[in-house]
Amino acid sequence: MRKLLCAGLLSLLCFGNFSAAQASALQVGDEGSEVAEVQTALSRLGYDVTPDGSYGPGTAAAVTAFEAANGMETDGVVGPVVYQALLGRTMPEIHRGDSAIVRRLTSIAMQYVGVPYVYGGSTPDGFDCSGFVMYVFRQAGISLPRTADDQYLIGVPVSPSNLRAGDLVFFVDDSGELSHVGMYLKDGEFIHASITTGIDFDSLHRDWRREHYLGARRIVP
Length: 221
Fold this sequence. Notes:
The chain has about 220 residues and is of the alpha+beta class. The protein contains eight helices and ten strands.
């Protein structure tokens, strides 16, 4: 874990840009006009998809079928090659905002600000850090492991410069052991279960947090 701490500290050189990440592909959870255009093209080709601008499982299934029919890698994601094949033009730069599920996670988490810290707690009567994020995600229909150690093993690693709302951020204690988790919001701010103040906000820019930052995991694509 000490080696992980060193890696986490080195990665902090990238801190500073906490704006919405730019994406080079469209995928489940994305919304907007670009998604609607892709859905319209798929629909015109006979695929069972509604052009509603929301990239859900149905759209992913249609994209996968299109990829298979055209000898492409079948991952259900619209990258530059799939985009060009569907729409006949180069894929534009995609700016990914917060998806509906991410907005729901944020809304749920905010409801519990002020709830006290309780060691081992995972209900609105009291939370510890991992119990809080597990509960929030469960209310949004997403199952997470109970402990911070296990939560750190799932999802996709995210660099500090690519953080977005809903990502889990992890910290180590002075001995270098993973000891804390919170949920990222925006502009370096995250929400977590603080031993001293209960469910509250904190900042990745704060000295102690910067020095003990381990890494982040993206659970929601």
